[in-house]
């Protein structure tokens, strides 16, 4: 067994916040190359979709872009992570995060 096989992410889902540029984009690409399914969150859905499509094309792994709608709460922002992970696992479903 190759040492890199121990780090495979097959059948795992990674959620990358800010994965449409810079370090987040590099991490998303690396995790997809390791075999993981990747969900990218971003405020810009259009740009994140371009990045996700590029990652899917280059790695062959599923990569989805979602732009969550944040609810303002008393103590900051709340996000429904279950909806994001569902979108990563089931690409035919839409991801509505209200």
Provide structural commentary.
By secondary structure, the protein is an alpha/beta fold. The chain has a single domain, classed as Rossmann fold (3-Layer(aba) Sandwich), CATH 3.40.50.720. It is 37% helix and 20% strand. It contains three helices and five strands, in the order βαβαβββα. The protein has helices at 22-33, 45-59, 81-89, and strands at 13-17, 37-41, 63-66, 71-73, 76-78. The strands form two sheets. Strands 1-2-3 form a three-stranded parallel β-sheet, with helices on both faces. A two-stranded antiparallel sheet has the order 4-5. A hairpin with a 2-residue loop joins strand 4 (71-73) and strand 5 (76-78). The chain is globular, with a radius of gyration of 14 Å. The model is unreliable at 94-98 (pLDDT under 50).
List the defining traits of the structure above.
alpha/beta, globular, Rossmann fold, 98 residues, two-stranded antiparallel ribbon, 3 helices
CATH homologous superfamily heading: NAD(P)-binding Rossmann-like Domain
| CATH third-tier fold name | Rossmann fold
Helix content: 25-40%
Distance, first to last CA: 45 Å
Q: Report strand %.
A: 15-25%
Largest sheet: 3 strands, parallel
The CATH class turns out to be Alpha Beta
CATH architecture: 3-Layer(aba) Sandwich
Unreliable segments (pLDDT under 50, ≥5 consecutive)?
94-98
Radius of gyration: 14 Å
The total strand number stands at 5
Main sheet strand line-up = 1-2-3
**How many domains is the backbone divided into?**
1
General shape: globular
Count of runs of 4 or more consecutive helical residues? 3
Structural class: alpha/beta
The H-and-E topology, N to C, reads as: EHEHEEEH
Mean pLDDT: 77
């Amino acid at each position: 067994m190759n040492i890199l096989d121990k780090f495979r992410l097959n059948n795992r889902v990674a959620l990358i916040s800010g994965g449409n540029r810079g370090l987040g984009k590099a991490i998303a690409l690396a995790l997809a190359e390791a075999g993981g399914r990747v969900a990218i969150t971003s405020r810009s859905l259009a740009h994140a979709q371009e990045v996700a499509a590029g990652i899917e094309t280059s790695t062959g792994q599923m990569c989805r872009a979602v732009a969550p709608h944040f609810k303002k709460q008393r103590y900051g922002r709340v996000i429904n992570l279950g909806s994001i992970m569902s979108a990563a696992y089931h690409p035919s479903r839409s991801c509505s995060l209200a």
